[in-house]
């Protein structure tokens, strides 16, 4: 038997390296991923991001989770009331925050309300831009991120109106 040729050894080493390195290759159907167990063109399910993960390149949008247990599909009011420890389920409707709490100036800790959405002000950035705690703030998730609060009314969630308890 003759000795193996150097080109055959290099080709065999390349195939072994391909299968052991986890390389992905594009095809018309999608991506073929190879690892030590073999190759597949099956698309993996997207991974859900864990809570409290920075989700954008600028670093100012932080994921704080999804819909809290027991909250309806539109959950900005419910998420904020649970965060603040308020039991009144009528606050699940965003505009009820404006009806049940005293108006206030924009300040940290106040709630920013408009028809259909409510969020908590955390800190002032500049002009109408505030860093906010925003339940159901996009893609069905909740974030701490910068938002323009122009058009919102501000209420103090620590002071209830006496006639509307």
Written description of the protein model:
With 165 residues, this protein is of the alpha+beta class. It folds into two domains: 6-40, no CATH class; 53-164. The chain contains three helices and eleven strands; from the N terminus they run αβββββααββββββ. The protein has helices spanning 6-21, 76-84, 95-100, and strands spanning 24-26, 31-35, 38-40, 53-54, 62-65, 101-103, 111-114, 117-126, 129-138, 141-148, 153-160. The strands form two sheets. It has an eight-stranded antiparallel sheet. The longest helix is centred in the first third of the chain and has 16 residues, at 6-21. The model is unreliable at 13-29 and 44-57 (pLDDT under 50).
Q: Please report the total strand number as a whole number.
A: 11
Mean pLDDT: 76
Backbone CA Rg? 26 Å
How does the major sheet shape up? 8 strands, antiparallel
| Number of discrete helical segments | 3
Q: Strand sequence of the main sheet, in spatial order?
A: 4-5-10-9-8-7-11-6
What is the helix fraction of residues, given as a range?
Answer: 10-25%
Determine the strand fraction and express it as a percent band: 35-45%
Uncertain runs are 13-29, 44-57
Distance between the termini: 95 Å
Order of helices and strands: HEEEEEHHEEEEEE
Number of folding domains? 2
**Shape call:** elongated
Structural class: alpha+beta
